[in-house]
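EI: anyone free to look at a 858-residue chain?
SC: sure, send it
EI:
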Amino acid sequence: MKCSPLLCVCYLLILVLFITYYGGVWTRSSALQCRLTMTMPRFEYEYHKEGDIIIGGLISAHVQSEYSYRFDFGREYITNPPGGYVCSDLDFEEYKNILVMISAINRINKDPDLLPNITLGYHIFDTCNDPIYILGYATKILSGENNAHNYYCKGHGEVVGFIGNNEFYSNNALAQLLSLYRYTQVNYRVTNTGLNIVNMYPTLFHMTPEDRVRFETVITFLQHFGWNWVGIITPEDGSGDEESQELSKMMREHGICTDYIIQLKRNTVNDIHTSEFITGSKAKVVIVCGTSITNFYNFVFGLYSGAENITFIFPPSWIKLTDLYYLKYTSLNHSFIFVWPREKKLNLDVYTKGVTFYNCLTDPILEDIWVLWFKCLSPNPQKNLYYRENNQLYVNPCTGVRNVSTLFSSHTTHPSFIYRAVYVLAHSLHRMFMKKNKSEQNGFRHRLHKYVRKVHYTDPDDGEIFFNERREIPTDLILQSWISFTAPSLKTITTIQSPDYVPPEQFPNMSDPIFWRTGKIPISRCSDPCLPGSRKKFGSLIHKCCYECAPCPEGEISNISDSENCMKCPDDEWPNQKKDRCVPRVVEFLSYTDDTIVAIFSAVSILCCLLTGLILGTFIHYQDTPIVKANNRNLSYLLLVSIMLSFLCVFLFLGHPVDVTCMLRVTSFGVIFSVAVSSLLAKSIMVCIAFKATKPGSPWKKWMGAKLPNVIICVFSLVQVKICVTWLSISPPFQDRDTHSYQGKVIIQCNEGSVIGFYSVLGYMGLLAAVSFIIAFLARTLPDSFNEAKYITFSMLVFCSVWIAMIPAYLSTRGKYMVAVEVFAIMASSSGLLCCIFFPKCYIILFRPDLNTKTVIR
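SC: here you go
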């Protein structure tokens, strides 16, 4: 679009606030058309080539610095130019990027399959990493000579997109300008997350992933070695402020704390306080953010004496540190740095090999390289004046032929992201023109970003090229260890490769002393790690990384170091002695194989049962004798059978309990003992009735006989049976696992189900025993030659004493010992009944048959 002189003048006045140009213009035509405008102390460099379509390039081959810094074969020269910061430091790698961009465009113009019949041109400026300059140069590229936005006054070639430099603030300023006019911008090596806001920068694309990918790898790397207390260093220029804040935030989310964030000042070389603070900190891992700064080298030299165990982690922008041969003498040795993978090598010798000084004058930056490196004079008197004022070194005219390409081969080769950026724009343009949509081709520069977003092609060397959802081309990032053994060699050991996330198992064995300056892995923690079996106990400190260690509570474990919480073991498990793992609980019950007392109970129960059976057989054998007939021999038989069954029901309490045995335990011995005690009650009542029936005309005679005892036994036993049936119907006993009574034990026991039912059975049995005891006690003095009431009284006394003593013992024990108390009470009470009632009779039957006569027993 043509612009009127008036409009161009208006826009020129508006933009005069951004940039001012000084000095004269010196121009020379060649294979590389170059323009050099020089004003002390700022030099301006431009490369341009006309074409049907123009790609703008804003690259920082020179950088701002406080010092003019140069290394010459091990000798260091530092000068302080007047006026503070100047654009005098030459970045060899960025100059190579200029040559790569030119080479890529020339290669595309020769490719008949890519953009046929269209010639690509370029306008490239050296921006000196200055946002003001980059805005001015962008405006000049967009509008031509008159600096009018949205008007191109030259009339030939149309600008379609820009390739930005590798510095955040300059690209941020450029992105804000180009987003307004929808011009496509491709950054070839800016990773700051602040440029990934799609809504704010819809036309901005990146050749490399954002910093978040690197941060994730850093966090995984720190976690791999257990480092949770780190420091961060950033330059004073603010290039690392946002990066350090984002990194700190992500580290906090993963339990890693930042001890300090220090901005290195201009006079850091003499900042003793900063050096002492860093060396005195427990943070032995220092992460460097931002762009490379000159005074960092001086800071490292001052830090060396007290930083033997500090490990630095650098971003990719600090790769130029590898050029320093004296790394082995500084704290940088054995540090780590992220680097981009090696990619295709482009032959740049055509631009730098075998040229004379006068030939290189067509390339203004190459002229500076020649002048600075070979220490000779330039034909430009202003430039000579500047270098003489700052270096006092250049005294000879520049003559002869020098192989300038050797200077570049001595520097580290970076991946050619700018080469890929040019081809991304070319493929997007090619796809746009292939659509042959005339409505889009009018003003296509404002729509190119839509095609860049969808670009997808295969490069023979780089593989598939496409943009992900963050408008980045996925690229591997390599973490390397710098190990310098002898100057000037530098050994680089690759430790990990990460596209997005790095699982810890992919880290190599880093215990090799070669990786660490002191021969062992440094410790970078605020507090010592809490070993398994303990947990973190946070106090009043701000950082979560500073804590004490507290042992896990009972029943809980921690099986990892630095656990914040302890975990409860499952119900069937319990912590081991170290509390670092759960082990199966000891299962406790009255076992036939493990408990000796079970064998004793079994043996005694069987012997007592056999003894009771023997007594029953004796009574049957002597059933016609007076002593057996006394007090109803059928009641004696029933009592002996009940006692025999009571000894056998002991086995329901032994062994592993199940639901069936749990239901039969209490109910069986409750019914059996109710029958036995009812038999004794019937005997006692019959003794009383028999005494009263001996009186003449007594009405009690009609109650004599077998009918009344049978009714008494049936009635009182059925009451117990009804209680048991009701209990089993409503809430029967069942097998239960008690995991709370004892630590480390699981008690297999019977749960009563209904406590009321359980105590109703015992209470009714106790009531029968008490009534039987009272009646027998009252009948004990009745005149009779063989008064069985005496023996019943003693038996009920033993019975009641056993069960009364059992109650506190039963309530004070747990587990198998509670069951043992029940078994003992059953066996003791049964034995008491057997001994007190039947042993005296057996003695008479077997040993005193003279007393077993009608004459003696009336």
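EI: The CA atoms of residues 71 and 178 lie 38 Å apart.
SC: 👍
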